[in-house]
Write a structure and sequence with these properties.
UDP-n-acetylglucosamine1-carboxyvinyl-transferase, Chain, 433 residues, globular, binds shikimate-3-phosphate, alpha/beta, 14 helices, single chain, 5-stranded mixed β-sheet
């Protein structure tokens, strides 16, 4: 599928974005293990979360859709999953695979986690090795770096893990395994990664002690309370609307009810440092997560240097940040972001290729990129490499490029942001199939 976008004159309006992908995955998983039905409102009907729901169905969990965006997950308790008859297909979702690896390691049955070619190329040693240190019988079907993952299910014991990279998927996998482990599981991160698992475990009645970058949980946990959650709008989806409004002259856009958890909003800090006018209004807590409306006005941006602790807090936003930097005055340098190389695509490589095709001055480095701006962009046909975040970045670039921009592989946008094109169009952008 292709998406065609044209230069926009101004964007305006009040919109919402679909529910948070990370929180939806966690609500599905923890809800399925709760003692009774969990109600999830604002659930994301994206392809990635559909993969997690599909795996849970294989594990005997009943998920009932109630209206537009509410689902009921009929939890059957911490030991209520039943042995799957076939490999569990995580499709493209790294979050599904890594979080489920932790949970499946402590079950009393064997299982296999698999996915499509894109996921089968993503590193899994980062969960295999620490899970094994807890007694898990888990290995890669080909070697220990890559999926499919073969898991026997075995008794687990708590362990102390010093993570080499700040990864919420790895941290979560280990804490979730810790629910089944005898004794204390401790995960120490090198930097702050998203903390939705810790918050949702607390909502289920499990105490997770977090001090600075160390998180501990005492197991085995006897039961999880069912959830009644309202999933906030996904900040990572709002990011595309924010940057679109900042770049298109005359724009003023309000994005309502967006999750503003600090472990996710590194992009806000970076854009403000670049000179962005973004206000947070109606800030409040919803189901243990901070939420606010974002008021974004067109702004002149300047280049900045990026590295250190903000990087994991903005890890999914570097393609769209790079686009913003191509329109900023001066140089932007991104460092410490080597993790981008192992996302759905090598996002250093694919971001550079896509933005260069549009005329940007951007060069890769081993752990980031260097960008010189502002550069006029010229619309053309650009491949999203089957990466949802790249697809949306190219579409937003088309709003400031001369001529027509065509996004190739735009169907992947539905992995995290179904309805993206419709929302852009409602703000006044010309975005159509
Ligand atoms: C996610 C964590 C991040 C992020 C991904 C979702 C999660 O990955 O890139 O899109 O839901 O825990 P890492 O934890 O590997 O950095």
């Amino acid at each position: 599928m292709q998406l065609r976008t044209k230069r926009a004159t101004s964007l305006s309006g009040h919109v919402t974005v679909p529910g948070d992908k990370s929180i939806t995955h966690r609500a599905l998983l923890l809800g399925s293990l709760g003692d009774g039905p969990s109600r999830i409102e604002g659930y994301l009907h994206g392809e990635d979360c559909r993969a997690t729901a599909g795996c849970l169905a294989e594990l005997g969990i009943d998920i009932e859709r109630q209206g537009q965006s509410t689902i009921l997950v009929r939890g059957r308790g911490l030991n209520g999953w039943s042995a799957p008859a076939r490999p569990l297909d995580c499709v493209r979702s790294g979050t599904a695979m890594r979080l489920m690896a932790g949970l499946l390691s402590g079950q009393r049955f064997p299982s296999e986690l698999t996915g499509n070619d894109q996921l089968l190329a993503r590193p899994m040693d980062r969960v295999i090795l620490p899970l094994r240190a807890m007694g898990a019988r888990i290995r890669g079907a080909r070697d220990d770096r890559l999926p499919p993952l073969l898991i026997e299910g075995s008794p687990l014991a708590g362990a102390r893990h010093l993570l080499p990279v700040a990864s919420a998927q790895v941290k979560s996998s280990l804490l979730l395994a810790g629910l089944y482990a005898e004794g204390r599981t401790e995960v120490v991160e090198p930097g702050p990664s998203r903390d939705h698992t810790e918050r949702m475990l607390e909502a289920c009645g499990v105490t997770v002690h977090s001090q600075d970058l160390a998180h501990t949980l005492d197991g085995p946990v006897q039961s999880l309370q069912p959830l009644d959650v309202h999933v906030p709008g996904d900040f990572s989806s709002a990011a595309y609307l924010c940057v679109a409004a900042l770049l298109v002259p005359g724009s003023e856009v309000v994005i309502e009810n967006v999750g503003t958890n600090r472990t996710r909003t590194g992009l806000l800090d970076l854009l403000r440092e670049m000179g962005a006018d973004i206000a947070e209004e109606n800030a409040h807590l919803e189901g243990g997560e901070p939420v606010a409306d974002l008021l974004v006005r067109h702004s002149s941006l300047k280049g900045i240097s990026i590295g250190g602790e903000v990087v994991p807090r903005a890890i999914d936003e570097f393609p769209i940040l790079a686009l913003a930097a191509t329109q900023a005055t001066g140089e932007t340098h991104v460092r410490d972001a080597r993790e981008l190389r192992v996302k759905e695509t090598d996002r250093i490589g694919t971001t550079v290729t896509a933005l260069r095709a549009l005329g940007a001055e951007i060069a890769p480095t081993p752990d980031g990129f260097d960008i010189i701006g502002p550069t006029p962009l010229v619309g053309t046909l650009v491949d999203s490499h089957d990466d949802h975040r790249l697809g949306m970045t190219i579409a937003v670039a088309g709003l400031v490029a001369n001529g027509e921009t065509i996004v190739l592989g735009a169907e992947r946008i539905a992995d995290s942001y179904p309805g993206f094109a419709g929302t852009m169009a409602s703000l006044g952008a010309e975005v159509r199939p």
